[in-house]
Amino acid sequence: MKNRITQLFNIDHPIIQAGMIWNSGWRLASASSNAGILGLIGAGSMYPEVLREHIQKCKNATEKPFGVNVPMLYPNIKEIMDIIVEEGVKIVFTSAGNPKTWTKWLQDKGIKVVHVVSSVKFALKAQDAGVDAVVAEGFEAGGHNGRDETTTLTLIPMVKEHLKIPLIAAGGIATGRAMLACMVLGADGVQVGSRFVASEESSAHPDFKKVVVDAKEGDTQLTLKELAPVRLIKNKFYNQVQELYKTAPTLEQLKELLGRARAKRGMFEGDLDDGELEIGQISGLIHDIKPVATIVNDMLTEFELAKNDLSKL
After folding, report:
1. Which of 47, 91, 42, 86 lies closest to 65, judged by CA?
2. What is the set of domains in the chain, with CATH numbers?
3. How far apart are CA 141 and CA 231, in angstroms?
4. CA-to-CA distance for 288 and 272, rounded, in angstroms?
5. What is the H or E stretch that residue 86 is in?
6. How far is 17 from 198, CA to CA, in rounded Å?
7. Whether the Cβ atoms of residue 48 and residue 23 lie closer than 8 Å to each other
8. What b/e readout covers 51-69, taking b as 16+ CB neighbours within 10 angstroms?
């Protein structure tokens, strides 16, 4: 399939593997790229030199294009961007910040820039900043999310109505049918996160992967909006957050409960009680752990079958 996304990134299929903290190291990114989609290393969980190591290992593991996802809220952002340039990465997905800050700087160095947004307003700001494409992420998505709770089904056509640059849909996408639906709504491609958490190459802890495949509808919830909205599996930590909310807590009390490194404890170290377990609503439709190549092939096969079914309606 050739379209604006495959041409922009020089990939075979318009699918992006999301750059997720503690889940998307070089193994997942390189396996995704080798499967003909765009793999992303999640820089949000990496110190600068760790990121450099992952980029170098990814370059050794694939000759295909790959990128780095960079949340812009970290204090060492300049060092991270310098490493990306030094290591010759040609694609950067930015999030959690103003796209004007880094877009031109990166593009002047020959890097394609994509920004992740959760609303029409921020999609237009990203377009005005000159990004090469936008990821519009619905509230179904796992991890950090938008405050407006706009679903993918409504967000994609609303963004498409105003956007001239390529549009990538994200949030609640794990199947070929969902991919087709998003493209019917106007997306040029899709970004997939939760499905790749439950892959053999994901760096997530095996116990977290099992929680994902065991999850049912209703097992996740968006919370901590006062800090940074995040969708979590309901566990002991989540229940503690809800109990604290009953007391009308201050920001300081929420921050104290959250503490540091909870996401690492949950997703990377496998602390299923006291860790942050970030995953999307679509986890209720994920029932097994497979190699990345199989996941991609399954999605593409289902996409074609669904497209044929659609033509019969």
Report:
1. 91
2. 4-203+289-311 (3.20.20.70), 213-282 (no CATH)
3. 7
4. 19
5. helix 77-86
6. 12
7. no
8. bbebbebbeebbebbbbbb
Q: What's the pLDDT tens digit per position in 193-231?
A: 999 999 999 999 999 999 999 999 999 999 999 988 899
Residuewise pLDDT in 10s, the chain (313 residues): 889 999 999 999 999 999 998 899 999 999 999 999 999 999 988 999 999 999 999 999 999 999 999 999 888 899 999 999 999 999 999 998 999 999 999 999 999 999 999 999 999 999 999 999 999 999 999 888 878 889 999 999 999 999 999 999 999 999 999 999 999 999 999 999 999 999 999 999 999 999 999 999 999 999 999 988 899 999 999 999 999 999 999 999 999 999 988 999 999 999 999 999 999 999 999 999 999 999 999 999 999 999 999 888 8
Give the HSE-up count for residue 57: Cα atoms under 13 Å, Cβ half-sphere.
15
> Over pLDDT 90: what percentage of the chain?
89
As given in the structure block, the two tokens for residue 275 are: 């860790």
pTM score of the predicted model: 0.94
Q: In what order do the strands lie in the sheet with 15-17?
A: 15-17, 189-192, 167-170, 133-137, 112-117, 91-95, 66-71, 39-42
Angstrom distance (rounded) from CA 269 to CA 157: 38
Structural contact between residues 121 and 102, judged by C-beta atoms closer than 8 angstroms: no
- Output the CA angle 272-276-280, nearest 5 degrees: 100
**Residue at token pair 């209703």:** 218
Q: What are phi and psi of 31, to 5 degrees?
A: -65, -40
CA-based nearest residue to 113, from 103, 122, 101, 123: 103
Farthest-apart Cα atoms in the chain, separation: 57
